[in-house]
Amino acid sequence: MKLCVNVDHVATIRQARRGIEPEPVFAAGLAVLGGADGITVHLREDRRHINDRDLNILREVVFVELNLEMAATHEMTDIAIKVMPDMVTLVPEKRQELTTEGGVDVIGQKEHLKETIEKIHDAGIPVSLFINPHIMDVDVSKEIGVDMVEIHTGLYSNAKGKRQEEELHRVMEAVKIADKLGLMINAGHGLNYSNVRNIAAIDGIRGLYIGHSIISRAVLIGMKEAVREMKEIIVRAKG
Ligand code: PXP
Prior knowledge:
Layout: E1 2-6, H1 8-17, H2 24-33, E2 38-42, H3 52-61, E3 65-70, H4 74-83, E4 87-90, H5 110-122, E5 127-131, H6 135-143, E6 148-152, H7 154-158, H8 161-180, E7 184-188, H9 196-200, E8 207-210, H10 212-236
Helix pairs in contact: 2-3, 6-8
This protein binds pyridoxine-5'-phosphate.
Pyridoxine-5'-phosphate binds near residues 100, 209 and 213.
């Protein structure tokens, strides 16, 4: 099972100062050294974290699977066709949201999605659709021609106890149906070091797409060393 690491949050920290560090491209390189099978970035309409420059450099230096998450807009479709990521994941996007809040409205947006998928396919790029774990959404995804679905694990991740078991069951059912229909299946959102096992144990899943928990852990794991380095520079400054 692939682990594809989303580095958006590294760019979010950079944008807090509109500066040049931390560099998401370096983070992607280190993620690959750590064993990441893929790198994901979400190019948002408002460019609040990852920007066009990041995407262009990542396309040049990332030789594992580069996944471009994007809304199904004309602007983003044109960018995808120009940059040629290894795959595109279509996600819903609202300006005010903190993160992608749910799967794509596959049924409501069916015709528009179909058109977008065809355009991206014409450029030779495989398309994944981020969907809620609903059987109808899986069926319609197949109908409109996607290669892959990414099952939204957010509700599973946020739930506790019995509710979490129910959400896990929903994810498992969606995986089963998608598998029967011959779709490739990914999963992601909200997965962390304590809830990932149940999802990673499901047969038929091709890859897990994880960002927040990995970047959060990286900040803490690196903290001691970062402070130690700064302290050493200060202590030695006067000879
Ligand atoms: N998959 C999709 C489609 C997403 O939008 C996100 C968040 O950017 C993720 C996976 C990763 O979610 P998280 O950051 O909670 O691990």
